[in-house]
Design brief:
By secondary structure, the chain is mainly alpha-helical. The protein has one domain. The protein contains 11 helices and no strands. The protein is globular, with a radius of gyration of 20 Å. The protein starts with 7 loop residues before the first helix and ends in a 5-residue tail after the last helix.
């Protein structure tokens, strides 16, 4: 049985990750207030918020493989924090596009959604991300029961759509989007059942079951 203070490494990691995830937003705010976002500030905001949303989405997916590789369960306790920050930056990305890039001209926005596939899949990824963010709390886990895990498997589809959004957006050098696609492929590959059997966490559980309990 774990003692009350045994989870301090998890709490330290959570506080550290919270600060690190907040830094890019504060840096962008500083750039806005000081008018120091380059020649095209709207484009800078679009790219920065989109990049951080995708990076944090991939980091969220990396927590379960990290637990299986290291055997430390503290990694999965960070998924909600990282996922909510991914949603936060995705929301900023969408707001910059709607409010600054397209000035809330809905005819132009609807035309973009219809004619530009990268915007279509990007919007679809955001729409699918909304219910995941809204139901990320423990209260919703209890309300939805076993359906909660099924709902949150949609995160894989969200990640695929987000990577497609990035790939189709870039017209020339696609090396960086392809690197993101490769990272996502590795993260999905790491979830294959055959790889899970050899993980340190699975071995610990197997050993715990095989060891006779002391009276």
């Amino acid at each position: 049985m774990s003692r009350p203070g045994d989870d301090w490494p998890i709490r330290v990691l959570q506080v550290t990750l919270f600060g690190l995830c907040l830094l890019p937003a504060l840096d962008l705010l500083r750039g806005v207030l000081s008018a120091n976002l380059g020649a095209n500030p709207v484009e800078h905001l679009l790219h920065a918020t989109g990049d951080w949303a995708l990076w944090l989405l991939l980091a969220t997916l990396a927590m379960t493989p990290a637990r299986r590789l290291t055997g430390w369960g503290g990694w999965v306790r960070q998924r909600r924090l990282l996922g909510l920050f991914a949603f936060f930056y995705a929301s900023l990305h969408l707001m910059v596009y709607l409010g600054l890039d397209r000035a809330l001209v809905w005819s132009t926005i609807l035309a973009d959604v219809w004619r530009r596939p990268y915007i279509t899949v990007g919007l679809a990824a955001f729409v699918l991300l909304v219910p995941l963010a809204l139901t990320s709390s423990r209260g919703w886990m209890r309300r939805l029961g076993r359906h909660w895990k099924r709902l949150h498997r949609v995160i894989y589809l969200v990640a695929i759509l987000a990577v497609l959004h990035y790939l189709w957006l870039v017209k020339a050098d696609r090396l960086v989007p392809l690197i993101h696609a490769g990272i996502l492929a590795l993260l999905l590959f790491a979830r294959l059942p055959g790889l899970q059997r050899g993980s340190p966490l699975r071995r610990k559980r197997t050993q715990a079951r095989s060891c006779p309990q002391k009276l």
